Amino acid sequence: MSFNIPTSKKKRVIIVGGGFGGLKLANKLKGAGFQVVLVDRNNYHQFLPLIYQVASAGMEPTSISFPFRKIFQKRRDFFFRLAEVRSITPDQNMIQTSIGKAYYDYIVFAAGTTSNFFGNEHIREYAIPMKNVSEAMGLRNALLANYERAVTCATEEEKRELLNIVIVGGGATGVEIAGALSEMKKFVVPKDYPEMDKNDLHICLVEAGSRLLAGMSEKASENARRFLENMGVEVLLNRRVSDYKNHQVVLADGEVIPTRSFIWVSGVTAVQVGNIGGDALGRGNRIVVDEFNRVRGMSNVFAIGDQCIQTTDEAFPNGHPQLAQVAIQQGELLAKNLVSLEAGEKMRPFRYKDLGSMATVGRNKAVADIGAVKMHGWFAWAMWLLVHLRSILGIRNKILVLINWVWNYITYDYSLRLIIYARKAKEVVDREIREANSHWGSGSGSPDDERP
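Request: output the structure for the sequence above.
Response:
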């Protein structure tokens, strides 16, 4: 296999990752005189701020995903390749990928982050992460399947495990998925599962720090905690998860919480490029860059967004927050700097303009920090809806998301509660169920008491 890209008199810019930063950079390089190659492991851009709504069956995956080839279908000298980057050879201006080698004049790493399990292999194996659309769909399948099994399970112990949902991580994603599941418990479960007492469904949010939403103001943190607790979510602060075994989340103080819905949104680590390591990496395995987002010791290799760490911005000496706006602003400036670099002009150093941050907790409930203004409640929620609706790619997707939101708001209902497995995954699940039923039929107990 090969990249199969024609040679050009134009300088080639390879962008690794089509997230917020990579997409902005690719768009801003239009007409700038470069040949642009976008490399991503998926063939679509995913709008991650709304991924929790896919996981909670409130939105279709296609509503927050947009194919790269659709975005750039009328662009000249633009190429997309579905691949993963394995390594880089800077002295040859070459990268090795899953489909072969490719040469560049400039390369920009913008592949973002992946879940950080802090070296705990038990947690890595059994926890359900939520960093991309595929994982969100997997979480939706797991939650809905557990509800179905809970109404037919053999023992109260098994039922408790199936109806306890433990979310680890009190950042925006953790808060938002906890709120969404709480609303599902209140509005959906009584209608879909009349044989189930909704009070048996227990949602627990565990955070190792002293407050939720650590990147926002203390006022926002307190309001988010109050909203969640009023919605019936148990919030555990200053509690660290140390392990998961025998269908139990194990806390550092020895307490255990039985569950088969173990959601892990606690921390991220930068996506790794095979042979970039050592001094080139900073906190969270982020690639260290200078004020121009240039990788240390390399003249034509850059990194932007969550995958990099930049400590030259006086306002953020410990690095910028891993937010979409940082990636977008870095991508926009880097496009200008690449043009300046080709023209022999000086590049501009990056300075992040903080536009604020916000998180939604549920219907009419959100928190927002916009400069010195701290908001919560309905107005913050309406602002959150507007900002996210404007940011979604594609008129069709905007309309679909708006229709879903309006429908859910009026009817107090979600209409996407489907358990859909890929064919191979479905075969595996069916085999496990057959084996479990066979074991149960032998009179040896619950159909799942020997599964990990």
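DSSP finds 13 helices and 25 strands in the chain.
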